[in-house]
């Protein structure tokens, strides 16, 4: 059995930056309440590690970031890498909170693009409904219109003008392109501005370029959008057996028993130590045939 560690994989720079900011904030404001507005990333092991530093996470899938702020009355609030609207920043200031911004630079770039264009026209935003990054973008202006697929495009009003088309940074390349083309078919004069970040794009492209792979293991949290996109890209690329695993403990021998080639990749919110553990275990299994997954490490960063 051949094990292929896909390159690149795992943490992107935006996530590395967000974790660094969270750790530095917890240290700088030790003794004060420190809250994260939403999940730092969609990975429970990273969240657990941050909680051990004294950071409290304020999250409710049924509430926007603006509504979540009502649950924080004092101390420090950290905005996650997904970004927030200007209204969230203003509300935090009015409440007297110390705001620490861990928004990914790529997301901020998209926000600047949207705000600039909304002064003269409408923005069609391709994104996942309810995702914090999409919610942040929608909160920038009432001229931002969310579409999740080709069907949503047909439901948009005819009154849109001077249209810019952009997107959530962590979407799948293939699905985003389909929705973009549906927009351009209805509005041929619209200006496309694809904003899938480089880290997402090159990770998906690396999976698309896998050849003669029997099995693909995607390491990451099942709630992570970018991790799920890697799974879908793998299936779309013709890899018949694609599995998601949060850790080694999720691997089953029947997943890989008769495979000649097993590739391993990871979402950009997946701790490197968890992916490395999966790779090391699979390499050991390939050599010895013994299937005994190791325990999850106590710390992930």
Explain how this protein is built.
There is one protein chain. This protein has 301 residues and is of the alpha/beta class. It folds into three domains: 2-11 and 199-288, 3-Layer(aba) Sandwich (Cobalt-precorrin-4 Transmethylase, domain 1), CATH 3.40.1010; 13-104, 3-Layer(aba) Sandwich (Rossmann fold), CATH 3.40.50.11270; 106-196, 3-Layer(aba) Sandwich (Cobalt-precorrin-4 Transmethylase, domain 1), CATH 3.40.1010.20. The chain contains twelve helices and twelve strands. The strands form three sheets. The protein has a four-stranded parallel beta sheet, sandwiched between helices. Strands 3-2-4-5 form a four-stranded parallel beta sheet, sandwiched between helices. A four-stranded parallel beta sheet has the order 7-6-8-9, with helices on both faces. Helix 9 packs parallel to helix 10. It starts with a strand and ends in a 13-residue tail after the last helix.
Short description:
The chain has 301 residues and is α/β, with parallel strands linked by helices. Helices cover 40% and strands 17% of the residues. The protein has helices spanning 13-28, 44-52, 65-68, 86-94, 105-117, 132-138, 150-154, 173-186, 198-208, 225-236, 253-256, 272-288; strands spanning 2-5, 34-37, 55-58, 76-79, 98-101, 123-126, 144-147, 164-167, 191-192, 215-219, 241-245, 261-266.
